[in-house]
Design brief:
Radius of gyration of chain B: 23 Å
Oligomer: heterodimer
Shape of chain A: globular
Number of domains of chain A: 2
Largest sheet of chain B: none
Radius of gyration of chain A: 24 Å
Number of strands of chain A: 9
Order of helices and strands of chain B: HHHHHHHHHHHHHHHHHH
Strand order of the largest sheet of chain A: 2-1-3-6-7
CATH superfamily of the largest domain in chain A: SGNH hydrolase
Number of helices of chain B: 18
Shape of chain B: globular
Structural class of chain A: alpha/beta
Order of helices and strands of chain A: HHHHEHEHEEEHEHEHEEH
Distance between the termini of chain B: 16 Å
Helix content of chain B: over 70%
Largest sheet of chain A: 5 strands, parallel
Number of strands of chain B: 0
Largest interface: A-B, 82 and 95 residues
Chain lengths: 303, 464
């Protein structure tokens, strides 16, 4: 038998240090990042799904955020690095003269529906703008405040139609309309959620210059998430009723939960096809194509 | 948990301290690092840990039995069953959905209307890497290249957090000997490790994700919306992106391991510098190439059986290598193109046909870029759309100085002579620890500022 130790790769050339040096390097970096960017940990927790990982990051984010808040470095660092911030991708490809803009937005649910719609309208008189904000939610405004973002999107893209598909990261406590904090998923939470959705719809409608197509959250696999999805969808229907004719709510449960509950697969063109991602929340490529059929029918029907 | 994330920034400093504190006492260090590694892996989904444990136990059982057994026929059976188990796990989780859908479509197409049951199985993160490492362990024990390690050591080998989710594919006989004695705390490649982490972060966050966001994802998503200049640039940009994404991950993994006192094999060596396909595969994903060579190509007969047998073996190896990346026809075609290129190159060897190095480089590089289009496109239809748009004239809407500059930098750097770059890395690695710490913080802050609100996208190779 050959000597196995001969197969251990050679370490890269360079000075050898002590383990203590490795700890010094890492902890100096950590200390500097806490001093200059400690608030980022707190904000980062917002992006994470509920669970142990998020709890840990939140627990660490509290003290690091406090340190950053009480020192003058954080704001200055953010200002100094602002020039590096991404503006969210390139401008859309050139569309024909007089093309109207269809904005497809939302959280991760809006992907890959946005790409599917962009493919379908490519080369025509509709220019599809895709603006997904992964990990965001209407009921959590620390990362992205959708009531503000919707107004910004309208200013930036000037859409004639807006497709909204959001609801994978909801269920967070919100200030109740009558004061206090509303916890999901009671009537006061639904009212608070509907109020925010209503403001978004108002922004997208642009006083009747545009139409809004709001997709409901199809029933997720996890029963705990189902309760949230039902509350979200109820609030969306309520807000749409108040918003008036320009808003069409597309009930995706009619398509993706024909038997009233979650289903991995549905019949597509006479064949059973899996239409959901493995997480039991999102639509996969085949599901997005089915959803795009429904959206396209609605959009084209109104043109 | 991905490396460039807040969770890892919390996890790693704590684990590093505890790891070095416990290192002198293997009976404490080993359970600790196993739990830490499983915790790292469980961040994706705790359920996957059970599968990782099952693969570990099955291969350890196979390795121990094959080591004890003297009858060659029985030894073959034991290894065969163990490898079959590994491949069955991989097959069920990675390929079942694809083949069920394809078979269902075929049966439906011929009017039978039958289809296999549809299952939505989540692909455990890093499963392809884990199973290949497990296979390397059992087969190397069978070949007499390695004695079975303790179950604890093998469990650490397969789950060690720097390589568990996306490699590099570390062979058991490279890693297990490093567990025999505690790592020497006076002999740690700190500077080299930090430099690799810094380079990896820049490659992944500042270059790969930037290119994905600015050109690759938009153009590959809706190729019909773009004309030849944008589509051509997107193809080169993807070549740059996938290199930065995967080699960036590997750099960070190797750097993190070095700080923990462990050495991993090199996985990339300026692949776009290659002037032959054989050379390319000695520079790209080196640990996969040598796995395929040692555990597939050579057992098939390698180049020992004449031209046609060699061609057959090359094609089988590369097509299966393509399929290893995922259950899609695009990956199969990608492997087929590389296989054909290797066959042609092999057939031409020894003939009078030759070309200057720069011409060979140009051909190899552009064939590699072309093959990446099939690898990246979500479907073959989209790949055809993409290639078709190369013949559509129109404006260059995405040719910004930043995008073009990033592509040129990534590819151009690989064409530079390696010595000056190595010297630069060597100098940086020799900086004192506080300076390295400050440099690391500055780089993290700089690349962190470029991350959009959506966060850092997963590494491309996580899906494999």
């Amino acid at each position: 038998m050959s000597d196995p130790t001969t197969d251990v790769p050679d370490p890269p050339p360079g000075r050898r240090g002590r383990a203590r040096d490795a700890l010094v390097v890492v902890w100096i970096a950590v200390a500097l990042l806490v001093l200059f960017q400690g608030a980022g940990v707190r904000g980062g927790a917002e992006e994470l799904p509920p669970g142990l990982g998020r709890d840990v990051v939140e627990a660490v984010g509290e003290p690091t955020g406090w340190i950053a808040d009480n020192l003058p470095f954080s704001g200055r660092t953010d200002q100094a690095l602002a020039w590096l911030e991404s503006d969210g991708g390139p401008a859309r490809p050139a569309a024909g003269d007089g093309a109207t803009t269809l904005l497809v937005t939302g959280d991760s649910l809006s992907m890959p529906l946005d790409t599917e719609l962009a493919r379908r309208y490519a080369g025509g008189d509709v220019a599809v703008e895709r603006d997904p904000h992964v990990g965001t939610g209407i009921s959590k405004s620390d990362l992205v405040d959708w009531t503000e973002l919707s107004a910004k999107q309208v200013r930036k893209h000037d859409p004639r139609a807006v497709v909204v598909f959001i609801g994978a990261n909801e269920g967070f406590g919100m200030p109740a309309p009558g004061g206090g904090q509303a916890q999901c998923c009671g009537a006061d939470w639904q009212a608070a959620f509907a109020s925010r959705v209503g403001r978004m719809m108002e922004a997208y409608l642009q006083n009747g210059d545009a139409r809004v197509y709001w997709l409901t959250v199809p029933a997720p696999r996890d029963p705990a998430r189902q309760e949230i999805a039902e509350a979200v969808n109820g609030a969306v229907f309520a807000a749409a009723e108040r918003a008036g004719d320009g808003v069409t709510v597309i009930d995706l449960d009619e398509t993706f939960a024909p038997n009233g509950g979650y289903s991995d697969a549905i019949e597509v063109d006479g064949r059973e096809r899996i239409v959901r991602e493995q997480d039991g929340i999102h639509l996969n490529g085949a599901g997005a194509a089915v959803a795009a059929d429904v959206v396209q029918d609605a959009v084209d029907g109104d043109r | 948990m991905v490396f460039p994330s807040i969770e890892f920034a919390i996890f790693f400093p704590l684990v590093l301290v505890a790891s070095w504190a416990l290192m002198p006492w293997p009976r404490f260090w080993k359970p600790f690092i196993l739990v830490a590694s499983y915790g790292f892996y469980a961040a994706a989904s705790p359920r996957y840990c059970l599968l990782l444990a099952a693969i570990t136990l099955a291969n350890q059982l196979g390795a121990v039995l094959v080591h004890r057994e003297s009858d060659e026929r029985r030894r073959r059976w034991i290894v065969g069953l163990t490898v079959a188990f590994d491949l069955a796990v991989l097959g069920v989780f990675k390929y079942y959905g694809f083949f069920a859908d394809e078979i269902g479509g075929f049966l439906d197409g011929i009017g039978l209307g039958l289809s296999p049951p549809l299952l939505t199985l989540a692909l455990p993160i890093g499963l392809s890497f884990i199973t290949f490492q497990a296979i390397s362990y059992t087969v190397d024990v069978k070949r007499g290249l390695l004695k079975p390690g303790s179950t604890l050591d093998v469990a650490i080998y397969l789950s060690f957090f720097p390589h568990v989710v996306a490699g590099p594919i570390v062979r058991a006989r490279e890693f297990l000997p490093q567990l025999r004695t505690p790592r020497d705390p006076r002999n740690v490649a700190v500077g080299a490790g930090v430099v690799l982490i810094v380079i990896g972060l820049v490659k992944k966050v500042a270059l790969a994700d930037f290119l994905a966001r600015e050109i690759v994802d938009p153009v590959f998503g809706v190729p019909q919306a773009y004309a030849a200049p944008d589509v051509a640039l997107a193809a080169y940009a993807y070549a740059a992106q996938i290199y930065c994404d995967f080699s960036g991950y590997t750099d960070i993994a190797i750097g993190v391991a070095l700080l923990c006192g462990f050495v991993f094999p090199q996985n990339f060596a300026s692949p776009y510098r290659a002037a032959s396909f054989r050379d390319f595969w000695q520079r790209w994903h080196i640990t996969l190439s040598r796995f395929l060579r040692d555990f597939l190509y050579i057992p098939l007969g390698g180049n020992r059986g004449g031209r046609w047998t060699t061609a057959r073996n090359l094609m089988i190896t590369m097509v299966l290598g393509g399929l290893w990346h995922g259950a899609a026809w695009g990956f199969v075609l990608w492997g087929t193109i590389h296989g054909l290129a290797l066959v042609v190159e092999h057939q031409l060897r020894g003939t009078r046909l030759s070309a200057p190095t720069w011409v060979r480089w140009l051909i190899v590089f552009n064939v590699v870029v072309f093959a990446w289009v099939l690898f990246r496109a979500e479907t073959l239809t989209l790949a055809m759309n993409f290639l078709g748009q190369l013949f559509v004239s129109g404006p260059a809407t995405l040719w910004t100085p930043a995008v073009v500059g990033a592509v040129l930098v990534v590819i151009g750097f690989q064409l530079l002579p390696p010595d000056p770059l190595d010297r630069l890395r060597y100098r940086a690695a020799n900086l004192p620890a506080p300076a390295l710490g400050i440099a690391l913080a500055i780089v993290v802050a700089l690349v962190g500022a470029t991350v959009p609100s959506q966060g850092v996208p997963p590494f491309i190779y996580f899906q494999f």
